[in-house]
Design goal:
The chain is α+β, with helices and mostly antiparallel strands and 283 residues long. 34% of the residues lie in helices and 22% in strands.
């Protein structure tokens, strides 16, 4: 038994919990709880679940899970996901990619201005030439030798017809349509609060791309996902939360699970795992 396992077991016994009691509280299989106390991590599904289960165990018996993980980090296997994220090269930003094209545009911009100016002058001159006065043909009287100017006949001017009064046009005022908006609030440890406004329904959807622990509770702490469990890659879980005022979604592995509210993706505030998303419905 490791020093961490001994401390957890001592806290459990002090609370008066058996392994079966702790399994009911944390929803973690008792064989994993026993392995944590004995320090036998090889029987557990992976390093991520070792850390997540230790933290849930600690919180269930009244200990600070984060402090225990930091104090006994030499005894606990580290998660490989942290090393992978450090080795991924940064993606070039759109601003960097667009810098070169912007410089080329500034080089040819003066030439474009001059060309447009020349075209505008040509169009103006052509328009004035087409709309200028035309010469009226003159007729010459062969007998008198006098030049007579032929003028077009005057058009008969008709009095303007009386216009019927136009009917007033009723203006149709469209009522503004409220769009759904999810606003990120404060983050304290694993908990991040969100405000949901402008929504007609409250459907929660979780899409798994890998293994992850998932639990959904209402404002009274009642488990809405029966039972809270581990989800696998390819699984999609949906839940109608219209009767709840607030829900808490606990995701064990944030890289492996995407959370949607009414098909709108809820952004995680950080890459930390696990995380609790507390969503307040403003109905």
């Amino acid at each position: 038994m490791t020093e961490l396992g001994a401390r957890l077991k001592e806290a459990r016994v002090a609370k008066g919990f058996s392994i079966d009691d702790l399994q009911e509280i944390t929803k973690i299989q008792k064989r994993y709880l026993s392995s944590i106390e004995q320090g036998n991590y090889a029987t557990m599904p992976g390093a991520f679940y070792v850390r997540a289960f230790i933290k849930q165990y600690a919180e269930a018996v009244g200990l600070n899970g984060d402090e225990l993980l930091e104090t006994y980090k030499s005894e606990i296997p580290s998660s490989a996901s942290d090393d992978v994220s450090k080795n991924i090269p940064p993606t070039p930003t759109r601003r960097t990619l667009g810098g070169q094209s912007s410089n080329r545009f500034m080089e040819i911009f003066p030439m474009l201005v001059v060309a447009l100016f020349v075209v505008a002058i040509i169009v103006i001159v052509w328009t004035l030439f087409q709309s200028g006065p035309k010469d009226v043909p003159e007729e010459i009287d062969t007998e008198t030798g006098l030049t007579m100017e032929t003028k077009p006949p005057k058009e008969e001017v008709k009095p303007p017809a009386e216009e019927e009064p136009e009917e007033p046009i009723e203006e149709v005022v469209e009522e503004p349509v409220m769009e759904q908006q999810i606003t990120v609030g404060a983050t304290q440890g694993e908990n991040t609060t969100y405000d949901l406004t402008g929504a007609e329904g409250y459907e929660v959807k979780v899409v798994a791309t890998g293994k992850s622990w998932l639990s959904i509770q209402d404002q009274n702490g009642v488990e809405m996902m029966q039972p809270a469990r581990e989800i696998q890659a390819g699984e999609t879980f949906t839940l109608d939360a219209s009767n709840a005022e607030r829900i808490r979604i606990r995701v064990g592995s944030t890289p492996n699970a995407s959370v949607y509210i009414n098909n709108q993706l809820v952004e995680y505030p950080s890459e930390r795992t696990p995380q609790n998303l507390v969503i307040q419905f403003n109905k």
